[in-house]
């Protein structure tokens, strides 16, 4: 077995999916035999195992407690917003529409644009819309969100300090 074949069998070996078929099982057995003789592949396996062990220690960060409120406020604002002009509506429709009725027309229009533009249509830049200014409510929620994050970071720092303090000489108590 070559190193390349062996390394392609490493995921099976790591994840224990070898029982799925006899072909995979014999592949894993061959890989094991190769690993016993090849230091390079053994190192590759060790590195993969270390990566998987590290992934096991990773915990998903908590979602912001204000996420739902912020989303709801943004949705309400979007619903209450004044209707946009016909050009904006058309642009949104063309960008987001996945229906079939426009595809032939769109294809034709793009082909025409390619012919007219001599193939340089792709580099045409559209004017970017002005960034939407967030309302007071959203700004407030964002401030709360930032405060929450700052508090979490401070908690973490304090925890780190607490673990450091056990190893360092005691600091004088603050009055
Ligand atoms: Zn090898």
What share of the residues does DSSP label as strand, in percent?
under 5%
Helix content: 55-70%
Distance between the termini: 71 Å
Count of DSSP strands: 0
H and E string: HHHHHHH
Main structural class: mainly alpha
Largest sheet: none
Number of H- or I-type helical stretches: 7
Rg, alpha carbons: 29 Å
Describe the global form.
flat
Low-confidence stretches: none
Small-molecule binders here are:
zinc ion
Mean pLDDT: 78
Oligomeric state: single chain
Kindly describe this structure.
With 175 residues, this protein is mainly alpha-helical. Helices cover 67% and strands 0% of the residues. It contains seven helices and no strands. Helix 4 runs antiparallel to helix 7 (136-165). The N and C termini lie far apart (71 Å). The mean pLDDT is 78.
List keywords for this structure.
single chain; 175 residues; mainly alpha; 7 helices; 67% helix; flat; binds zinc ion
Compact summary:
The chain is 67% helix and 0% strand. It is mainly alpha-helical and 175 residues long.
